[in-house]
Design a protein that fits this description.
The protein is mainly α. The chain has a single domain, classed as MFS general substrate transporter like domains (Growth Hormone, Chain: A), CATH 1.20.1250. The protein has helices at about 1-10, 15-35, 55-80, 85-105, 115-125, 125-130, 140-170, 175-185, 185-195, 205-210, 220-250, 255-260, 265-290, 295-320, 325-345, 345-355, 360-385, 390-425, 430-439. Helix 3 packs antiparallel against helix 17. It is globular. The protein starts with a helix and ends with a helix.
Length: about 450
Amino acid sequence: MTAHLRRMLERASPLVFTCVAGLAGFSAYFSFYAFRKPFSAATFGVVPGWTFALDYKIALVIAQMAGYALSKMIGIKVISELDPAKRAGAIIVLIVMAWAALLAFALIPAPWNVAAMFLNGLPLGMIWGLVFGYMEGRRTTEVLGAVVCASFIVSSGAVKSVGKLLITHWHVSAFWMPAAAGALFFPLLFVSVFVLSALPPPDAQDEAARVRRAPMYAPARLAFLAQYGVGLGLLVLAYVLITAIRDFRDNFAAELWYGLGYGNGAAMFTESEIPVAVLALAALGLIMRVRDNTRALIVIHGVVIAGFALLGGSTLAFQQGWLGPIPWMILSGAGTYIAYTPFNAMLFDRLIAVSGRIGTAGFLIYVADASGYVGSCALLIWRDFGLMQLNWQQVFTASAYAASLIGSSLVALSAVYFLRKARRSSGVGGKLEQALERT
């Protein structure tokens, strides 16, 4: 059955293939979020058995994030070297493991169930690399990547809405709600992964446009870092900042909306994220239209800087009274995702293509992600011990300003690095310099 579907997709038009592949990737990652994010829709409050100074929900977020970050570190090697034929099976096994951890979270009393959230995050950190592996290295990677990235903008709000409904309308406890929400998405997950497994690999035209993609072993990874390490380091530091902001907004959306006076509506999580997705995808459309890889690398830097600027500018407008709470949450979310999303697909896929090296963008994505989630944990610890006098909104506002200023500066320095590298190189760099002049 898989072989029959693959033959059909090989004969399909580019438009049909892109629609099928994009929808399968979107649905698979949408389903993944149901095993990771629903618990953040609960506020928990006073939890019997929890006697520590650290807030219980922050402890859950940090535990899950620690597992997720460790998974990203492991993924630098695993995702880089994994045989593409094993991706589908790996997705299913890892998500079943994550769901089993959610069952343990419901069955084990506090404080011991915090460890279950660590075990939940540990397998889930691999999923993005496995799903994006089906999308990268194609002429339509920007389109496919944007569609899959839209899933983690919309799905986070959607699965939190499902979690809120399970608690408020179906009277599921906050501890059983995450496992119940995940169980609802198993059918969609299985269908999506089946379609992904049937996608044909990139063809000869894809390889000519984006470089052949293959497992990337340690010598190739080290050689890539030796050539582009400084620029990559600047980008990773910027990604640490935007990841911390994105995760804080995502994990504590319930608290932020409650502080803004919108704490009772389950639909608010989804309704506010749809325009965020639309705005973010509109910005990413600028990248999709650029076919030349070196020119696209320049454009992506500009888009990321624009996202940081929108995050800081919308926050300033809200504090000055020029924006209401809902427009602020939408625009700050759009700025966050405009800066965040290119790192997860377009930026590193184009960088691999510009380098001319056979490899996988998953390696670069996981280097950035492993660092990014360390920043997320640091922000939460800083909030709970260093900023206890500030509420959720004040912490988010202060962090938004810092990320906007520092992040945009780091990305600008990265652009300067690649431009200077262009002047010293007659190959890849020369093409980059020419692309800048044409731009």
